Write the structure tokens for this entry.
Amino acid sequence: MRGNFAKITKILSAGVLAAGLLASASARAAEDTIKVGILHSLSGTMAISETTLKDAMLMLIDEQNAKGGLLGKKLEAVVVDPASNWPLFAEKARELISKDKVAAVFGCWTSVSRKSVLPVFSELDNILFYPVQYEGEESERNVFYTGAAPNQQAIPAVDYLMSADGGSVKRWVLEGTDYVYPRTTNKILEAYLKAKGVPAEDIMVNYTPFGFSDWQTEVSAIKKFGSAGKKTAVVSTVNGDANVPFYKELGNQGIKAEDIPVMAFSVGEEELAGLDTKPLVGHLAAWNYFESVNTPENKKFIADWHKFIKNNKRTTNDPMEAHYIGFNMWVKAVEKAGTTDPDKVIDAMVGVSVPNLTGGYSTMMPNHHITKPVLIGEIQANGQFQTVSKTPGLVMGDEWSDYLPDSKDLISDWRAPLSCGNFNVKTGKCGGKGTN
Amino acid sequence: MKTFRAIGLTLLFLLTTLSSSGAAEADLRAIIAKFATAADFSETGVIVRELTATGDPAVERPLAALAEGNLYIRAADSMVFVGKEGSDSIQLFDPLSGEAAGEASADDLTQIGVNNTLRRTIRDALGTLTLGSKDPTVRIAAADTMFKTPDAANIEPLDAAIASETVASVKALLEQARAASILVSDKPDADKLAAIALIGARGDRNAVSLLTSVEANASGAVKEAATAAIASINSTLAFWDAGQNIWYGISLGSVLLLAAIGLAITFGVMGVINMAHGEMVMLGAYTTFVVQQVIRASFPGLFDWSLVIALPLAFLVAALVGLAIERGIIRFLYGRPLETLLATWGVSLILQQAVRTIFGPTNQEVGNPSWMSGSFAIGQLAITWNRLWILVFALLVFGVLLYVMKRTPWGLQMRAVTANRRMAASMGIKTPWVDALTFALGSGIAGIAGVALSQIDNVSPNLGRGYIIDSFMVVVFGGVGNLWGTLVGAFSLGIVNKFLEPYAGAVLGKIVVLVLIILFIQKRPRGLFALRGRAVEA
């Protein structure tokens, strides 16, 4: 009997111990957080654009935590600084995934930084949300592209300029900074314009180096090209820093938007903040979001942003909206999958639909691009854009351009049976090649 | 009796005009009220055309306001007003009479949107309406618009305007506008040939643009005349283009000179490889920004003087930072160029990040004072004011620096230390202080360059990066240690660059210039003007 009792106490105590262990383990798990990586340059040339995105992500994570976190856990942001140094992007991405064990990474701005981290994400199987408009010609299993593909920005912009509202433009200057995004975009645009019957002598393509500041020759060349008796417009893929001197020279040489409008793909509210926009009223930009969009969601987003950053003058911009959409999609996909395991989340992402800031819903498509409306805005004297045209419905991101011979037969579908980013519909094989 | 009749007639005339204008005003108001119901830009455009069709000069006020985006609809009663943005509300004015009509908050008003097409429609319409304006500049603008958008219906109002025009230069422009309109009308060929001759004499790009479209649509003698006129204009323009390229080159040269001139002191005279030179330029630009912020907030009237005020401050800020760098770091590294290079590179990163932390990573807005905005024309040469002032300023700085170096005791000491440090020291010159002050001078000059460059470039923490390579290129090319070399180097690089650009493009042009410099340095390692000094001995 005594022996039995001892046995029972032993078993009981073991049970209690086990239960206690379990309890303490689960308590530890509750304390655990879900880590989210933020991979944006906070120093160097790209800091000018990327720092804002880091702050926007911190705000979104804060707000999610205030709503009670995710899967009952708090989110924790892990911020690293790749310092505008492309190889360092890959290094920092590896650090985030292997050392910090983040569940997903939000980051990159330039295409070259994205290309630099791609192998890391596929090797370590994690998720990257890329928030910037880009040249397309890519679809990776581990990357979700929340910025615009060329058909969500460049093509509708050119369509607008060709329309009666946009001035029935007949002659085109494609002005860009000399790197992959402008070169690919201009290649697509040139093919598109030619398909629309624009003769080659009515298209002028010109490239300038990064950070170019002496635009006198280029602007007077545009003036000259524009005096051929046909309505002329400039489509500008000029990048970041070079824009301010470009617009200053346009203003000083008296090129008015009524005569030769400039349609820009890389100029947002943030870039205009460093400029006196009075001489630029009427020049255009094509984005999927403007700060001036008048919806309740956007008003709340701007108010939250001003409160978070403690500065009422800070603007919001398109890549911030892309992160807003991307982050909410990820949250929804994690809830749907019930885990943060990247493999399961990647599968859960396709089809997820969340509200965007322009009064509609954006959906993640099987090609890992999203649906968005395309807005054309004119620069106003107060540094904001006024929407002058909006696509009637949502436009689905097309990763492989239909206007380039190398990529027109390719499609991408990451759902189960196909699960391929570059499927060639002509040959029926996965592994086609784009232009870059 | 006679006077009585005259008075009666006048009264009658007054009555009729009054009543007719009253009716017209009511009509205009009815049309303007329609703006409130326009659903899109094309409907607004229809109303604009309806307004201009009345031919009443009174529509100028609402149309001009619409073009500037200052026409509002009051939500409460759908009334249309001209608005002027105040500090926290919008002041309202009657669209026709311009009388004040109270104020309203922005939430109660809807702005009537305009786009480029509408703005152009309004501009063309205002052209005809403002032909009779008292202000000659408005008449010039009207003539200009009518020239660019010729219309057969314009001939009559232009004839009337030409008959009453008293200013010869405006009259010539009006006649050109009339000629342009004749070309698109169905007037006989003889008139058109005369018009082509008149437009051909104008000789600018707008004339080419107009004649090209005429050439495409005409036949026979008119077509031939247009072709000949285009060819003759183009040959004159080719000549002006060369002039334009030289001006662009000089202007680029002046920017290079400004950026490099401080380096000509620190690197050229002292032999310090100062990688933080660009950041001194950046500090100068940020000083300008701060000065403008203070002026905007407290003394708005002084805005046009902001650059003048910023100059001494920028010099002081950059010179003090330069002094600190020299005393704190560089003086321990004299004669060790590699370490100096690395240390100053580090300093440049620290300065960039410091500015980024204080002012944020985004561009800051530095405004152009009114005297630095816009452009003027000499013949077919468009010269922008800001570039012209920068050229003048660069030459002024160069002159002052040359004077300091050659004509002042301090300059003499500087040159003595450069030529032979030990001899200079034994003559009682405090060489460490000369070093420190020389470095401060070079940095200060870079600072005032920043004031000028803030007018044409981004004011961001990266500002200096863009200029450091070019600055070294200019100094090395011109000859280390020689100010005149820097001057000649800057202008020749600028002009060569701008002559290559139209043919080779900006990217290839820059590469060609770099290759040319490499070849040149192979041949003459000491640059254009070699000088004996410490840099040479080391």
